[in-house]
TrEMBL record:
SMART domains: LH2. Residues 1-23, 53-171 form the PLAT domain. This is LOXH1 protein. It holds the Pfam family PLAT. SUPFAM superfamilies: Lipase/lipooxygenase domain (PLAT/LH2 domain). It comes from Horornis vulcanius. InterPro entries: Inner_ear_hair_cell_LOXHD, PLAT/LH2_dom, PLAT/LH2_dom_sf. Transmembrane segments: none annotated. It comes from the Eukaryota.
């Protein structure tokens, strides 16, 4: 099996991810590439892209006192076929200092086809100075599937607030789901 990557694993490069889910490609792609007879990495990338889905994940921290967190936040997307596994939300495309009070942060998550998105788990490792976090909502847009889903939360992920949980399983709000042409 061949699992080419040809992407950065760095917070300050590319899409900011430090872990990647790789999909196997046909052996012929790797052999042609090494023999240098016209098979470009771009073609290889297209084959991999066809087997994966890119999600834009927006996360809204609530506008409450001490709502922001310095802890390491993660998300898992659960679909009808599979899940993404733990994805660290390291580099926000919008804010250098992520998960601050009243702010929306945006992340890119790539995954193999997990099917229709059914639920998410989001949480943090409770490490750092101010770890408690008030999560307003999560919005996940999958342009290749033509779906944008909203996952309302409106709760603390904090050992000393609410029910003391630092991770939550959230289901999409059907009335806030937007379907469009992929």
């Amino acid at each position: 099996y061949y699992f080419p990557c040809q992407r950065w694993l760095a917070v300050e490069e590319d899409d900011g991810q430090i872990a990647r889910e790789l999909v196997p490609v046909d052996e012929a792609f790797v052999k042609k590439d090494s023999e240098n007879d016209g098979q470009s990495p771009a073609t290889l990338g297209l084959e991999q892209k066809a087997k994966s889905t890119t999600y834009t994940v927006k996360v809204k921290t609530g506008d409450k006192k001490n709502a922001g967190t310095d802890a390491n936040v993660f998300i898992i997307l659960y679909g009808s076929k599979d899940d993404t596994g733990i994805v660290s939300l390291k580099a926000s495309k919008i804010n250098k200092n992520k998960f601050e009070r009243g702010k929306v942060d945006e992340f890119t998550v790539e995954s193999v086809d997990i099917g229709d998105l059914k639920k998410i788990k989001i949480g943090h490792d409770n490490k750092g100075n101010s770890t408690g976090w008030f999560l307003e909502w999560v919005e996940i847009d999958a342009p290749s599937l033509g779906q944008c889903l909203k996952f309302p939360c409106g709760r603390w992920l904090d050992k000393s607030e609410d029910d003391g949980a630092v991770e939550r399983i959230i289901f999409p709000a059907e009335l806030q789901t937007v379907e469009y042409i992929p």
